[in-house]
Design goal:
The protein has about 100 residues and is α+β, with helices and mostly antiparallel strands. It has a single domain, classed as Beta Barrel (OB fold (Dihydrolipoamide Acetyltransferase, E2P)), CATH 2.40.50. The protein is about 15% helix and about 40% strand. It has one helix at about 1-20, and strands at about 20-30, 45-50, 50-55, 80-85, 90-100. Strands 1-2-3-5-4 form a five-stranded mixed barrel. β2 and β3 form a beta hairpin.
Amino acid sequence: MKRSAILILAAVLGSALAGCASTRTLEAGCATCIYHMQDVQGCELAVQVDGRAYLVKGVDMDDLGDAHASDGLCNTARQVKAKGKLDGDYYAAEGITLIP
């Protein structure tokens, strides 16, 4: 009985923590220019998580500098520190910073 209660508690806590935002290093770029995502109009920020590109909600590409500069996110994918979580087909970002 005690073991069952512990397993149930662990499962509940694990599910609750799975929805929490975490900070991780990801690749970011333009959804159109870098990742060639269908149904995206214009230049929008996307991050790649486990080999799949996701549009970003909560941070705009303009927040990360000139997207069309030679080192901008429309011309090259960049490593970023991203705090957020996957939310369906989107990455819900609390913050994203470029790694120099």
